[in-house]
Amino acid sequence: MNTGAVAKLLGVSQSTVQRWVKQLQLEMERNELGHYTFSKEDIHLLKQVHEQLNNGVLLQDVHVEGRKKRTGIAAPQNDTASFNKILARMDDIESRLNAKADDVASYQLLHHRSEIEELQAEVLRLNERIQQLEKKHAHATAPLPSDNLLIFDQEKPRKRVRKKNILTMLFGF
């Protein structure tokens, strides 16, 4: 049977049947045009899938019994020359990686050292500036001798401000 006939038999669309085959990795026969051809066993598998989906099972959780499994055996190769070549290349890459890491760490240390030296120089400049300002402040706040004081330098007694009565403020007496 082709995909359309199986879809009508199950009551689903053709794209649904194709999606089930692809997502569940079912081994289905194909014709010379690449279309699926389903045998009775294949239709039975798809009916199992349809029943499980109707019972509320998610597509990724569907379990198909009797599915054809792919089998294959990988022939072991004893090619020690290529294995040794790969190991030598890995050692070379690892040594270059370690050298690069050392270079980066050295660069960062030198950069941090220069930043620290710049900050130390800045701290020294700031300390000198603070000392200069403290000297100026001490000189400016030093008391003046009373015999040299001019009238402007002497402090005048402040006149006592009288508080006005609220009635005076309102009526201007």
UniProtKB/TrEMBL annotation:
GO terms for cellular component: cytoplasm. GO terms for molecular function: double-stranded DNA binding. InterPro entries: Chrosome_anchoring_RacA (IPR023522), DNA-bd_dom_put_sf (IPR009061), MerR-type_HTH_dom (IPR000551). The keyword Flavoprotein does not apply. It is found in: Cytoplasm. Keywords: Cell cycle, Cell division, Chromosome partition, Coiled coil, Cytoplasm, DNA-binding, Sporulation. This is Chromosome-anchoring protein RacA. The gene is racA.
